[in-house]
């Protein structure tokens, strides 16, 4: 496949390495300083663009890709207020694959989190809290992955109605503690705690390879498809 990279930072580099090892061609790399390449023939002819940039610029990158009729796979987090616009664009013929986390392990963890929440809805003695730890360069908080986890919990647990970062004001809230430390690629924990014990599930990413591999496999999955795609389309057995 002809892949364009939008954003050539930590994830852009990791994706390039995996894409090349799977026989793909990187036809274009767009970073902050060569924005005019959105107009290039190489970009227009790409089969897919893989976008990992920053929360504030992602939406304009999606618009520019759609204008060039290039499908987008994006892992940038922190832009979801624009989701309705992207879903509308997909209804009008564009293609977009979004995952708050592309790693297979995290998506197994998401399934486990949903299953555990269904059980724990029946055990009100347990309170719930979450923690996420990431490297100090991460711009958004809580992480997109933490938001996926907490929103899935809120769908299942009737005694909770919202989340809050830091200390809560009501028993109905789930506290999320977002910690920024060193070069940590990403740790997420969900804990249920009663007076007698605690149950904690944790995903701990050892490096960025799992995210990068998932993004390249998502690009392969996107090829030839139309519309708005997610990991649940790609991994239906984890629904
Ligand atoms: N979904 C997932 O599985 C997953 C996994 C890991 C990370 N993420 C998310 O992916 C995003 C990127 O992470 P990262 O670790 O790769 O960050 P990073 O190392 O900071 O890379 C971001 C890159 O985007 C560039 N950039 C800034 N503005 C741009 C623009 N307008 N057009 C094109 N490129 C632009 C930056 O350039 P400068 O350095 O010159 O500013 C930088 O090279 C973050 O939102 C992160 O939370 C998602």
Entry summary:
The chain has about 240 residues and is an alpha/beta fold.
Keywords, separated by commas or semicolons:
Rossmann fold; Dihydrodipicolinate Reductase, domain 2; 2 domains; six-stranded parallel sheet; elongated; binds NADP nicotinamide-adenine-dinucleotide phosphate
How would you describe the overall organization of this protein?
With 239 residues, the chain is of the alpha/beta class. The protein has helices spanning 10-21, 41-44, 58-67, 83-91, 104-120, 144-156, 209-222, 231-234, and strands at 2-6, 25-30, 48-51, 72-74, 95-98, 127-134, 162-165, 173-180, 187-193, 198-204, 227-229. It has 2 domains: 2-102 and 209-238, Rossmann fold, CATH 3.40.50.720; 104-204, Dihydrodipicolinate Reductase, domain 2. The chain has 8 helices and 11 strands. The longest helix is centred in the middle third of the chain and has 17 residues, at 104-120.
């Amino acid at each position: 496949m002809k892949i364009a990279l939008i954003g050539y930072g930590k994830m852009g580099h990791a994706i390039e390495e995996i894409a090349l090892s799977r026989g793909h061609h990187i036809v274009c790399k767009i970073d902050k300083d060569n924005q005019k390449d959105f107009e290039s023939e190489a970009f227009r002819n790409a089969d897919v663009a893989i976008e990992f940039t920053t929360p504030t610029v992602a939406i304009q990158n999606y618009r520019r890709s759609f204008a060039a009729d290039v499908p987008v796979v994006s892992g940038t987090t922190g832009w979801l207020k624009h989701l309705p616009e992207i879903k509308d664009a997909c209804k009008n013929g564009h293609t977009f694959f979004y995952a708050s986390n592309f790693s297979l392990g995290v998506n197994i963890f998401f399934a486990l989190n949903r299953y555990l929440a269904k059980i724990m809805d029946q055990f009100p003695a347990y309170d719930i809290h979450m923690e996420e730890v990431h490297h100090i360069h991460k711009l958004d908080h809580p992480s997109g992955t933490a938001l996926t986890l907490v929103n899935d919990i809120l769908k299942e647990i009737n005694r909770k109605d919202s989340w809050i970062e830091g200390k809560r004001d009501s028993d109905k809230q789930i506290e999320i503690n977002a910690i920024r430390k060193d070069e940590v690629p990403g740790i997420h924990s969900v804990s249920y705690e009663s007076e007698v014990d605690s149950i904690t599930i944790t995903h701990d990413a050892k490096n960025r390879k799992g995210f990068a591999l998932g993004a390249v496999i998502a690009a392969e999955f996107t090829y030839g498809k139309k519309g708005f795609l997610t990991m649940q389309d790609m991994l239906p057995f984890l629904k």
